[in-house]
Amino acid sequence: MSEAKTIEPRPYHHGDLRRALVDAARRLLEAEGPSALSLRAVAREAGVSPAAPYHHFKDKAELLDAVAHEGWEMLQMAMTDAKAGVEGREQLTSIGIAYVCFARDNPALYRVMYDAARDKEALPMDVEDANPENGNAYCLVRDTMIEQGADPRAETHLELATVAAWCGAHGLAEMAGFKQFDHLKAELGGERPFLDAVFRHMGLFPTHAHD
Amino acid sequence: MSEAKTIEPRPYHHGDLRRALVDAARRLLEAEGPSALSLRAVAREAGVSPAAPYHHFKDKAELLDAVAHEGWEMLQMAMTDAKAGVEGREQLTSIGIAYVCFARDNPALYRVMYDAARDKEALPMDVEDANPENGNAYCLVRDTMIEQGADPRAETHLELATVAAWCGAHGLAEMAGFKQFDHLKAELGGERPFLDAVFRHMGLFPTHAHD
DNA sequence: TTTCACATCTGAGCGCTGTACAGATGCCAT
DNA sequence: ATGGCATCTGTACAGCGCTCAGATGTGAAA
Fold it and tell me: Which class in CATH covers the domain with range B68-210?
């Protein structure tokens, strides 16, 4: 109880430096790419000394983690919006397209997100907890599967389809960055016969949707 | 014609330093992980000065490229062996399992391979040239699809299935590194009902194999 | 109001990195 | 024997992540 102190809230000397640092990092990331994202460059961009960030993040990885966290929130929002925009079976395809588009539009951020996840050997998602309200993109996909007719009691089938969809979307997002697959990237706006087909083909529908 | 000089062949001062450097890099990579793979550390491991590598590689990226290249060759071999080990429809699943196993057994190398590819924005594979003899893993998958009944004249369907399979395998390889999907990793040896199902589900068979 | 504790920020510095360059070294063809 | 040249070394520089002692300002206690 005596530990009822606020954890990291209000402005101090220079206002909310933590926020300013994350913003500076995202600005740099967009402008110069991931390789330019040094801690010193972020501090420079935010107008503070190279040592200042260490009072808000234990090391560089923790700063990148904060940036990645906002990326996952953005991705989740994009997927949620995509689902809300259409109805029925189109929802899963729409979510998949939104995922790949996010990776295309934020390639540096997307890379930071997965780099951070790999370092921690964990995605920032609780696969077990299927509660959609906790802002969990993985569960958004799973819930949509269920709504489209997957049997939630057939756990294996359900998670199988969800994992397959996630793997497929991530794989596509990475492949679309290679010039061998430029036509994938080109298809992301407007008509997208190939991409739609890949998503359907990869199992963005529950297993028994083939009937 | 006057340019008939050999390009990078025989030993000189210290023998074949280029080879020694790549070997040293791979040794370091396996022992210490990708973050320990500095050019200076590689030179140290090979017993030469920090500047020596620059007579064989234009910069660090080019050295990593050489390492990645050998990784792709290893992967191609693993996939070819996997295909040769079984018959019929099992071949595609077997290739997929081999792909994911390779990523599991050589995580650092696998990461270097895709990092190098991302920097060049291209996989080291010629997707257009379907000649299997050029040692092209992507074409190995496509050819196997054809052998299993895909129509090579239906270009879209064929490449669709191949891209879907590649994306799925890469996605699975990455997901298997996250602790949320430990059961995927655990399944890679021996019985693998879930993984097999994911592969089948993701389209490791030609589209009309669902009939 | 003065004082004090403490969160915050700076400046200097350490060891590391990738890369450049001048010069030493040893092989090969003449 | 000589000269050219690929190869390798030593030194150097800027930038990196990170640490630490000390300066600076803020909110709470006196």
Answer: mainly alpha
Determine the pLDDT at residue A77: 96
CATH, range A61-210: 1.10.357
Nearest to A171 among B121, B171, B198 (CB): B171
Q: Using the CA of A58, which nucleotide's C1' is the nearest one?
A: D18
pLDDT 10s digits, B17-68: 999 999 999 999 999 999 999 999 999 999 999 999 999 999 999 999 999 9
Nucleotide nearest A53, from its CA to each C1': C9
Among B residues 83-122, those touching chain A with beta carbons less than 8 Å apart: 111, 114, 117-118, 121-122
Interatomic CA distance for residues B95 and B185, integer angstroms:
16
- From the C1' of C28, which residue's alpha carbon is nearest? B12
Q: List every span in chain A annotated with CATH 1.10.357.
A: 61-210
CATH 1.10.10 segments of chain B: 12-57
**Could you say which DSSP state residue A124 is in?**
S
The ranges of chain B annotated as CATH 1.10.357 are 68-210
Contacts of A204 in chain B (CB under 8 A): none
Residue of A nearest to B127 (CA): A180
The residues, any chain, with a CB within 8 Å of residue A64's CB and separated by 6 or more, are A25, A37, A112, A115, A116
Would you call B172 an interface residue with chain A, using a CB distance cutoff of 8 Å?
yes
In whole angstroms, D27 C1' to A111 CA is 42
> Packing angle between helix B60-85 and helix B39-46, nearest 10 degrees?
80
The 10s digit of each residue's pLDDT in B57-76 is 999 999 999 999 999 999 99
A117 min Cα distance to partner chain B (Å): 8
Across chain B, mean pLDDT equals 84
Token output for B115: 């990092």
Length B13 CA → D3 C1' (Å): 19
CATH number of A12-57: 1.10.10
Query: Which residue, A177, A187, A192, A143, is CA-closest to B121?
Result: A177
Residue (of B113, B94, B102) closest to B75 by Cα position:
B102
